[in-house]
Structures are given as structure tokens and as C-alpha cells.
Known about the structure:
Elements: H1 3-12, E1 16-20, H2 40-51, E2 55-60, H3 65-72, E3 78-81, E4 86-88, E5 94-96, H4 105-118, E6 123-127, E7 130-134, H5 143-160, E8 163-167, E9 171-176, H6 181-189, E10 196-201, H7 207-211, E11 218-222, E12 231-233, H8 236-248
Parallel strand pairs: 1-2, 1-10, 2-3, 10-11, 11-12
Antiparallel strand pairs: 3-4, 4-5, 6-7, 7-9, 8-9
Amino acid sequence: METAKIVDAYKHATKRLLLLDYDGVLAPIVPLPEQAMPSKEMFALLEKLAADTRNTCVVVSGRDHETLDEWLGGLPLAFAAEHGLWRRDPQGTWGFVVEVETGWKSTVRNIMQPYAALLEGSFIEEKHAGVGFHYRTATAKDARQIVERLIRDLEPFVSDASLKLLDGKKVVEIIPDGVDKGTAAKFWLDGEEWDFVLAAGDDVTDEALFKVLSSSDYSIKVGEGITAASGTVPSQPEFVRLLEAFAAA
């Protein structure tokens, strides 16, 4: 990735859009979701970027909107939470974007619960319109094999119920079909004319975001793995250094 070229393009742009995932991008990956509060340094960095009137900064995350609002709501950021089910403008107004059925969540929980009991260190997280099975703290040698059995059990129901299964970094998440970060980002991408667009993410859910960008936009995958992004950085701290270069430009 040509960092100097990206920083130079940012420096000379007058209307910029930054589309940033939270976990693994703005905050390091941690064992438990509640441990990923933004550091003082990251809060200050986002505050500086958002204060630049040439910037529109959007946090595009799978996290629930309550957590994002609690952690970052005091900043003039825009948000797409739960993969775009919720949206907030920089002035702080949240709105539910997509009306979806949520009665399926109890069935998904019932499928996941025996696996959560079987795999020590795993747990189930429920959102407004999503259910996730986390296993980052599971230590069993056959943890992945157990998760693959869970996925096989979920797939028939997911298909019949028009849902989507996301097999991400140590989490399996079920969300409504038709909801993704790419669709969420198009609200901002299509709403204005931008002379600089950058999107960054670290997981499978961010691929939908990368795929809606134009060839002139910048997309960055944080970490390893096959990706549609135009560039990669090896670690979250290295991406933070790019944001710091933006703030200093």
C-alpha cells in the first residue's frame, strides 16, 4: 500500500469521506466485545478528524447502536450500526433504517445454545436484529470443528428464513438478508460528490463495503486474508498511523 500517495491525495482533497469499521480498525481486537472501548488517544484522533470541515467521518460497524453511541456519541461522527440497520447523522440523531422481522432470533438462539454450553469460553450476543456466537476466548483444540458443526446446523434455517450467515473472526453472526455494510455506505457515497473516499475494515463483513467503492476510491483491508480491497496493512496499529498522518496533514 502506497501510504504516502494516499496521504497526499487526502491532503489535497476538499471533500472527503472516511468509512471506518470499529473493531479491528479503530480499536484492536480483544477477547470480549465490551473490552473494546476507544482509547483516549483514538477518541482524540477521531475528534480531530471530525472537526475538519472537509471531512465526513462514518463509523460503519456491526456493533449495536447503543454501544457506539455510548462510546463515541459525543463526537460529530456519522454511524451505520448493526451493518446498516441503524443510522446516525453527525448531529446525533439516530434512526432505524430498515424494517426487519426479528421473530427468528429465538430459533437461532436455541440452535446456538447447546454449542455455547459445549464450547467453554464461547457466548451468545443478541442485538436488535442479529444474533452472534463468539468464540474468541475458547481454548479447546477442536473449537473450530465445533463451530463448523454449528454452522452446518444453522445453514438450513438461515436459508429457509431468508437470513444471512456471516462467518467472521471468531464470531458467527446471523443477520437479515439484504442488510450489509455496502448497502449502508451507499447512503453517503451516493448522497454527495466526494474527491476523496477511503474505507477500511478487517473482516468478512467489510468486503461488501469494499465492493461498492469506485476504482478511484481507496479501500484498505487491515490484516491478512483474501479481499476486494485495493490495499492492505498488516495490523491495526499501522492503520492508526495512517489516520494520524491524515490528522497531521
